[in-house]
Design brief:
mainly alpha, 15 helices, globular
Length: 325
Amino acid sequence: MRRRWLRSLLRYVVSGALLLTLLYFLDASEITSRITKLDLRWVALGLIICVLQIMLLAWRWRFTAERLGVGMSYRHALSEYYLGVLLNQLLPGGILGDVSRAWRHAVSSARTRTAVHAVILERLMVQTVMVAVAVVSVIALASRWPAGAVWGWWGLGTLLAIAISAIILRLASLRSIIRPLGADARRAFLPSPVLLLQFGTATLVMAANLMLYIAAARALGSDIAVTTLLPLIAPVLLVMMLPISIAGWGVREGAAALLWGFSGLGAAEGVAIAVAYGLLFLLAALPGVVPLLSVTLRSGRGWSAMETKVEQDILAKHEVTTPRS
């Protein structure tokens, strides 16, 4: 228990330390000035994009669960997804929101393994699309960066390698769940029309992330051309998946500073846009407070106890060992 709390505290420390370091070495006054002068019209558009994205994600989860025979109402899926997104924004690790909705769905459906598979498969397709877009983005950047920007390439390559490795390690830690995943994956993704629908909706989710980032840039008054901005976004989003911070805070801004700096766009502007993106997503997740209060009242216990229960129920039922730090 103490080790888990120490790991959680360390992630908050990492996020805070990275953000303070960036503010120290960059023009903090420029960053804060930009953020305090957000164009509310673009903020509103960003929030609309977030809402539509979460609605689509909830639909994907419900569709995947129904393919596996553990369906739910769309209203329930949307409420649970909002709660999951909020928890992922506030709690360390970036997956406790997904774990918590998998656990509650497992309890309500009395089919633990299948309910967990529905969450894994729904997220796996989206993350696969994100990795693919990030790789294509890096290839696109290769034609823009000067040959002498060797440190930028080493830095970007290292960040992407670590992020992809983190995804692989996270999946490896769930090996006892993933081992029998094949049959459910076939049911969730096949035949071909279903696979096309899964891939298409996952691509729309990724497109919404890109559009939200562009809206964050425009809200700050950035006039970077969309064609210049697009290849920079996916690598930043992928690096956010590193489980060393809180919702990617600090890591996202550090990656943005690196990419914007080596692209000649100004590291401070990249950090400001990354912060605006994070704030927009956090603001869009606030409706998750409603199901959070509902679940808390029903559970009758604090979130510390609930977090422990979530981990024990899902990990123990699947004989998954938590990786040692």
